[in-house]
Amino acid sequence: MERSLTHIALFAALIAVLGLVPQITLGAGVPITAQTLGVMLCGTVLGARRGALAVLLFMALVAAGLPLLSGGRGGIGVFTQPSAGYFIGFPFAAFVAGWVMERTTLPVGIAAGAASVIGGIAVLYIFGISGMAIVLGKTLSEAAMLGMAFLPGDVIKVVLAGLVTQAIAQARPGSLLSRPQTLPVSAFN
């Protein structure tokens, strides 16, 4: 239990640290940040339940007013911004990425990449695009077109999540909580 709490707190801190990477804000008011990489890693490394809990801890700190989102944003006001859908989707994205990791027998690196695409892109975009449509008063099609601007960066984050998860599995297999220890570690087994 104590080990799980430590991992949850550590990954919540990782998401916060990734917010220090300078953001790039697009015309729609939704910033490109490195924090979604942290959300992907929560799922691929910690698994569904712990990954979602790490993200929920991070979100609680932001909602309490800590300026942990990229650009120093925090407080309840983040739920009214064009990026609110993405923020609300963070725990769902981590949960789904972790769920995929826990259930696939693919090698770790490939599984983490696939889990990141499904959770960190597909699920997150459902929430994010819906949120942009509501906040900006756009149709879902218009919001989806705006959301596609994030895809190239998110593909890079998927690759990074796969590589980082693979490196953790090789260096410290016991730290990869999303997989039974009997599954292959090598990316190409």
TrEMBL record:
It is a multi-pass membrane protein. Pfam families: BioY (PF02632). It is found in: Cell membrane. Keywords: Cell membrane, Membrane, Transmembrane, Transmembrane helix, Transport. The chain crosses the membrane at residues 51-71, 83-101, 113-136, 148-169. The keyword Transmembrane applies. The keyword Metal-binding does not apply. Its main location: membrane. Belongs to the BioY family. This is Biotin transporter.
